[in-house]
Design brief:
six-stranded parallel beta sheet, alpha/beta, Rossmann fold, four-stranded parallel beta sheet, 14 helices
């Protein structure tokens, strides 16, 4: 009986060996397939997760669009919130002290990267990150060199880089001249503590005479100063052109209301300002700017490059945006050349 059992066991073992020998298995095949898939669809390391801190200096449409675009740019690189990405988001509400506190909190939580949206937030982030060796990617910084976030040639000053929303000043002046052929003075409200605004005003003053304009600026230190400063400025100018000044943009509805009562046009610097009532802008698309920034951040997170190895990038595209309702309210008709080339014409005023 024992011999019979052993015979059956030997027969079964031999049969299974023969059957397995009929299947050709290439031990390298799974690795080759995985390698091929990785080449076709590069992405973050399998199983790798990231935590980033996004600090936004103020709450308004253009900076919100930057954040939206930034996350979309990361997602296009395979880094998606809720999957392999944890996002810590804080808004400084246009307060420098709060911006510094936000950056300090991010560093204490040892995030993998800090994204600073707007100049004051980027400055706060870098001031903290220098000590903690956390890379910083910024966006919506008009003049990174003036803000001491980059060298004059756009090269990094440390583990920090990002994208600039430098204004197309000459295109803006050319547009204003086309829409207001009789205008002579342009007013600009700005925050004296924002270096990006001071840099933009200097460029406006330099270029304005070529288009027959004089620039009249009015500096404020806080949002509480805006109503009186706007009233005074509106007595001296034919129109106002807006910068990407964060404090001023956050109070833009107040300025628009006062200007509308005096029948004075206000020009914006990007799409969201036109959407809420500015007459027109040769402006930027901040979602696209954010996406460009997200792609840069992804390279740092995935280890493809260090922030210190990537120069600051400047978005090149500027397009005409107009608000037809505002134009009608002011009794203004857009020149056909501008209207026909508009990237978007709004027919109402967003509330």
């Amino acid at each position: 009986m024992m011999k019979k059992a052993i015979s059956i066991l030997l027969f079964t073992t031999m049969t299974m060996s023969l059957l397995s020998g009929c299947v050709s298995v290439d031990p390298e095949a799974p690795q080759a397939q995985a390698s091929s898939q990785a080449q076709e669809s590069p992405g973050p390391e399998a199983g790798k997760t990231y935590t980033i801190g996004i600090g936004q200096f103020a709450e308004h449409g253009s900076l919100d669009n930057c954040r939206e675009g930034f996350l979309a740019g990361l997602a296009e690189e395979g880094i998606r919130e809720g999957e392999n990405l944890t996002v810590l988001f804080e808004n400084a509400q246009a307060d420098g002290g709060t911006a510094s506190q936000i950056a300090t909190n991010f560093a204490a939580k040892k995030v993998d990267l800090i994204c600073g949206i707007a100049t004051p937030m980027a400055q706060s982030a870098y001031g903290v990150a220098m000590k903690s060796h956390i890379p910083v990617i910024f966006t919506a910084v008009t003049d990174p060199a003036a803000a001491e976030l980059a060298n004059a040639d756009g090269s990094p000053v440390g583990e920090i880089t990002g994208t600039s929303d430098k204004l197309p000043v000459e295109k803006q002046l050319e547009m204003i001249r086309a829409i207001l052929p009789e205008a002579e003075t342009i007013g600009i409200l700005y925050t004296t503590s924002e270096v990006n605004s001071e840099s933009a005003i200097a460029e406006y003053k330099s270029a304005a005479p070529d288009y027959g304009f004089t620039i009249v600026e009015s500096g404020i230190s806080a949002s509480a100063d805006i109503p009186l400063a706007a009233d005074n400025l509106l007595e001296k100018v034919d129109c106002i052109t807006n910068l990407t000044d964060n404090t001023v943009v956050a109070s833009l509805p107040v300025i628009l209301d006062k200007a509308s009562r005096k029948h004075i046009p206000v020009f914006g610097s990007e799409i969201e300002q036109v959407r809420i009532g500015c007459l027109a802008a040769m402006g930027l698309d901040y979602v696209d700017l954010g996406k460009q920034t997200g792609h840069m951040a992804a390279k740092v997170l995935k280890g493809e490059a260090k922030a210190s190895e990537m120069n600051v990038e400047v978005i090149k595209e500027a397009a005409f945006y107009g608000n037809s309702q505002t134009a009608e309210n002011l009794g203004i008709t857009f020149p056909e050349e501008l209207a026909s080339s508009a990237k978007e014409l709004f027919t109402d005023i967003a509330q």
